[in-house]
Write a structure and sequence with these properties.
The complex is a heterodimer. Chain A is mainly beta. In chain A, 0% of the residues lie in helices and 48% in strands. Classes of the chains: A mainly beta, B mainly beta.
Chain lengths: 114, 113
């Protein structure tokens, strides 16, 4: 079946621009996660959505980062006024249920800020 | 706070020889543990998971891992490396009932023909 789909796969933009990254989770998965993977920092948790509950935003690095999940399915991660340190691979994952269920990852969006 | 330590940042083996990727976790209770593999420009793919049912866990592609509580270890092994195993491997811990994952720094596996 279809896995987690992320778009775009690559994004190059100028410093100061806003970017939107999209994640389409596996159908029926109630939990959705965003992570950032960068050299030297490994994988960092950004935000978590579960059903209609308020998201856990504790991992967002600054108020330039925001995310939403519409209709309990597709999610968009927005980075405003991008900085060079935002350059990283942004990974989305989904799981059938929260808790210790395996998370299924998309291939990520490679973001480069010039 | 949880922490996961992957003891080797890079492991190099010859094709057909055994693979050992080492991982130590920090939790004092029985955590859920996972190994994921990441090929270049790809997301993370689940290899196997431990959730306290059995200490020896078999995964995909011939990999297995053994949970050793006394050593707080969860090392990943494979009897015979294949060229297609060259990738980065992540040991991951999930706290009891928690959705938050703690990732190790990763071990890059190289397979020499």
């Amino acid at each position: 079946g279809a896995g987690v789909s992320q778009s775009p796969s690559n994004k190059v933009t100028e410093k100061g621009k806003d970017v939107e990254l999209r994640c389409d989770p596996i159908s029926g998965h109630t939990a959705l996660y965003w992570y950032r993977q960068s050299l030297g920092q490994g994988l960092e948790f950004l935000i978590y959505f579960q059903g209609n509950s308020a998201p856990d935003k504790s991992g967002l690095p600054s108020d330039r980062f925001s995310a939403e999940r519409t209709g309990g399915s597709v999610s968009t991660l927005t980075i405003q006024r991008t900085q060079q340190e935002d350059s990283a691979v942004y990974l989305c994952a989904s799981s059938l249920l929260p808790g210790n269920q395996p998370q299924h990852f998309g291939d990520g969006t490679r973001l480069s800020i010039l | 706070a949880q922490s996961v330590t992957q003891l080797d940042s890079h492991v190099s083996v010859s094709e057909g020889t055994p693979v050992l990727l080492r991982c130590n976790y920090s939790s004092s209770y029985s955590p859920s543990l996972f190994w994921y593999v990441q090929h270049p420009n790809k997301g993370l793919q689940l290899l196997l998971k431990y959730t306290s049912a059995a200490t020896l866990v078999k995964g995909i592609n011939g990999f297995e891992a053994e949970f050793k509580k006394s050593e707080t270890s969860f090392h990943l092994t494979k009897p015979s490396a294949h060229m297609s195993d060259a990738a980065e491997y992540f040991c991951v811990e999930s706290g009891a009932g928690s959705y938050q994952l703690t990732f190790g720094k990763g071990t890059k596996l190289s397979v020499i023909p």
